[in-house]
Amino acid sequence: MKTALAVLLLTLLLVPACTVCLHPARNIWLVDESHEGKTIQVKAGDWIRVALPADPRSGRVWDVTSEGNAVEDDGEPQLDEAAPGTGGTGRVTIPLRARRPGVTDLTFRYVPRKDPGATPAKTLHVTVFVQ
């Protein structure tokens, strides 16, 4: 009985530890306007969060295009509006995920929601190199 209990206890302690070993830590990379024209190097499985200024009252949205298949969407963009009465703009965070080794060129364009082909008010270009 004591042996069975010891084996059970040891199993309960080691299985979660081994599971953690099988899933290496992933990084979260924060990208903003300061990364304009730059290349970031990440590992497959890493998360990329692109934070850009946004004002929902402007009628504009960030349109994202990509060339390459190493990076993919990882959920819906999240808008953090400015505090009322501050006169500032909010920020939108666009979640991406490095899925596989390769290179993806990302272009973000701040365009009117109803006319995505219009000249953008702002742009951001970032290249992501995934190992």
Give short descriptive properties of this protein.
4-stranded mixed sheet; 131 residues; 5-stranded mixed sheet; alpha+beta; Immunoglobulin-like
Structure at a glance:
This protein is of the alpha+beta class.
Could you walk me through the main structural features you see in this protein, from its secondary elements to its overall organization?
There is one protein chain. The chain has 131 residues and is α+β, with helices and mostly antiparallel strands. The protein has one domain (29-130): Immunoglobulin-like (Sandwich), CATH 2.60.40. 16% of the residues lie in helices and 46% in strands. It has one helix at 2-22; strands at residues 28-31, 38-42, 47-54, 60-67, 71-73, 78-80, 90-98, 102-112, 122-130. Strands 1, 3, 5, 6 and 7 form a 5-stranded mixed beta sheet that branches. Strands 2-9-8-4 form a 4-stranded mixed beta sheet, with no helix packed on it. Residues 4-23 have low confidence and may be disordered.
SSE layout and pairings?
Blueprint: H1 2-22, E1 28-31, E2 38-42, E3 47-54, E4 60-67, E5 71-73, E6 78-80, E7 90-98, E8 102-112, E9 122-130
Parallel strand pairs: 1-3, 2-9
Antiparallel strand pairs: 3-7, 4-8, 5-7, 6-7, 8-9
